[in-house]
Specification:
Shape: globular
Keywords: Membrane, Transmembrane, Transmembrane helix
Organism: Liquorilactobacillus aquaticus DSM 21051
Number of helices: 9
Order of helices and strands: HHHHHHHHH
Largest sheet: none
Structural class: mainly alpha
Pfam family, one: PAP2
Distance between the termini: 22 Å
Protein name: Membrane-associated phospholipid phosphatase
Strand content: under 5%
Length: about 300
């Protein structure tokens, strides 16, 4: 993407964000009351499975590190720690994602069993889980399948390509980590009540312009929307038309996941809009940093 295109896209994003946050400032509560549907299958599916990008960017980066370590096996002092680090990162993140999926899935099934709305679930803490044996078997199957797929993708790549993917993985992982840290800090500081946590009178609703301090509520900004927007980062691992398609998919996926959070009653419009554009800004900054520090040096050599 040319510098001119980047500037145009940045201006469009700023204007769009400003307009949507202005609408949300006056219509947050009314929009939520109109759109909430706790029985939404669409909202429940994305609530359960939608956060995969935030985990699988780490997984992909870890798997690339494993392959790079294997190819550098002559230097064991470097290769062994890198291999163990890559394995630990990918294995742990798959486990964390499966824990989240299991928790939301069990909650949804329990709601159905108890004749409650399917989408009602705690968005701030895991409330249910599989047995240790079931979780271990599921993790092992998923980890093996993903490892084989990534190994198949990388098997014909040159050493230079693997090295480039490793560098991209480092910046991609830093992007996810920074987004998680900022999102979590803002959630605690804002202390905003989620739509489904509002009292019957809704007197505890607060505008996104009003931070409440640490109180246990974590509506602003949306974590799921952040995770969905991070799907854009997968495009960094592709080139040509595939990169453009993955970028477009990431942009759309983040917006769709944000919409699902509005419908399921987990977030207000402002939670979603702020999270979407803030995460996109972090992605832009980190990719630009990679281009200036790494990409230019690779071209020079």
């Amino acid at each position: 993407m040319s510098d001119v295109s980047k500037r145009k896209l940045f201006v469009i994003a700023v204007i769009t964000c400003g307009l949507l946050l202005t609408v949300a400032s006056f219509g947050d509560l009314a929009i939520s009351n109109t759109m909430i549907n706790y029985n939404s299958v669409f909202g429940t599916i994305f609530q359960t499975f939608g956060e995969f990008p935030v985990y699988f960017i780490f997984v992909l980066s870890g798997e690339v590190a494993i392959v790079y370590a294997i190819r550098c096996k002559e230097d064991k002092l470097f290769a062994v720690p890198l291999f163990l680090g890559g394995f630990s990162l990918s294995a742990w993140q798959i486990k964390q994602y499966l824990n989240e999926v299991s928790s939301y899935s069990i909650a949804a099934l329990t709601n159905i069993h108890n004749n409650k709305s399917i989408g009602l679930a705690n968005s701030d803490a895991a409330t249910a889980s599989l047995s240790t044996k079931e979780a271990l078997i599921l993790w092992l199957v998923v980890y093996i399948c993903i490892t084989l797929l990534i190994a198949f993708w990388l098997k014909n790549k040159s050493d230079e390509q693997i090295k480039k993917y490793l560098l991209i993985g480092i910046f991609a992982s830093l992007t996810v980590w920074f987004s998680l840290e900022v999102n979590g800090a803002l959630k605690d500081f804002w202390g905003r009540v989620r739509p489904y946590e509002l009292s019957a009178s809704q007197h505890d609703f607060t505008s996104w312009l009003h931070p409440n301090g640490v109180n246990g509520h974590k509506s602003f900004p949306s974590g799921h929307t952040m995770s969905g927007t991070l799907c854009i980062v997968f495009s960094w691992f592709a080139t040509g038309i595939r990169r453009r398609r993955l970028w477009i998919f990431g942009v759309v996926y983040g917006a769709v996941l944000g919409l699902s959070r509005l419908i399921i009653g987990a977030h207000f419009l402002s939670d979603i809009v702020f999270s979407y554009f803030l995460t996109a800004f972090f992605i832009f900054i980190m990719r630009s940093l990679y281009d200036h520090i790494i990409e230019k040096n690779l071209k020079l050599h």
